[in-house]
Amino acid sequence: MLNLFGLPQLPLSEEERDFAQQFINQRSAFFSQACTQRQKPQEDIALGLLTQSYQQWLEVFISTQTKTAEMKSLFSAHVGSQHAEKFKSNDELGLIVITKLWLLAQGYHGIDFSYANEQASTVSGLAVCNQKSHTEITSNESDTDSQSTGLTPEQHALRQQLMQAYYVALEARKSQSAEKIHDDKHNASLLDTLTRFIKRLF
To answer: Which of 35, 50, 51, 179 lies 20 to 30 angstroms, CA to CA, from 44?
Structure first.
């Protein structure tokens, strides 16, 4: 189903793609069960399950932020802040990946852009705050992008990455719609040709 939404075209790091595949494998049985029990299109069920997963990961991420910040502070003290910034907790990775999948589903369904962008901004704000110290974040707040969007340059960059999933899905839906129109016209042409041939016989 996620392939239908445009997942193969979504730029993901190797780490993110591995996590996405693990998530899909873990949830595939539940998705199949939901499809047999509910009289709804599979696309709608997928959106519902991804919405639920996003909310769960967001709650977990927020609840573990303090512990993760302490781990990164300890890591920074031992290996330096430059290497510490590369550290990414499983909760942080999961939130980013699940958000991308969720925005992918939103884009395919044509859900309002402003809502998708608001959620992407929320996640990017949380994730980048989790990656950097308060001092590092406030020192960058004079940037033009942060003044216009309320986000730091790092948060703005992550928001753009997240929203890329939304745009990929929009393009996937447009492409599929165009193919369907072409196929419908082709089938109509074949039917018209067959009808005229039969009329000539009689």
So the answer is: 179
